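Supplementary Methods, section 5.1.

A reviewer requested that the exact input to the structure prediction be made available. We therefore reproduce it here, unchanged from the version used in the analyses.
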Amino acid sequence: MDLSDEGRPLDPVWLELDDNVYGSLAQDASASSLAERFVGSGWSSRSMSWDSYEVETGWCRLEIDPTEEDTLLHGVVDPARFEDLAALVTRFGLRFSLELYDEDGELLRTAEAAAPSAPEDAAPRFLGRLLLPKP
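The structure derived from this sequence is encoded cell-by-cell as follows.
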C-alpha cells in the first residue's frame, strides 16, 4: 500500500487523550487494503510495521493490526464523531464491532455491522444508545 500524507493530521486537542476506541474487523481484508480504504476516504496512512498501519484524519487516529483471527483497531476518536467512524467502516462492507470508552475506561457506546457486504447507504447498528445517551 502506498503511504499517504494528504489527509488532515489529528487535531492537537486529541493528541493527549489515551486510546478511547477499540474494535475488530473480520479478516475479509488485509490491513493494507483496509488502510487503502481509509486513504480513499481522505485519511492519511503510514506503515507502523511489516503488516500494521496507522490511519488518521482531523478527528481520529487508528492503528490497524492484523491477527490470525481478525484485524484489530485501536486509537483515539473525537467522541462526537464515533458514529461517523462506524458509518465509514460500514461503507467498507466489512463485519466489524467498535467500542467507545470515556477517560475513566467506562464503555460509552458500541456499534457493529454483521453483514459482510453492506450497501453504501447502510447504517451501523448502534448498541451504545442503550448504555449512555449521546450528548
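The chain has a mean pLDDT of 81. These observations are discussed further in the main text.
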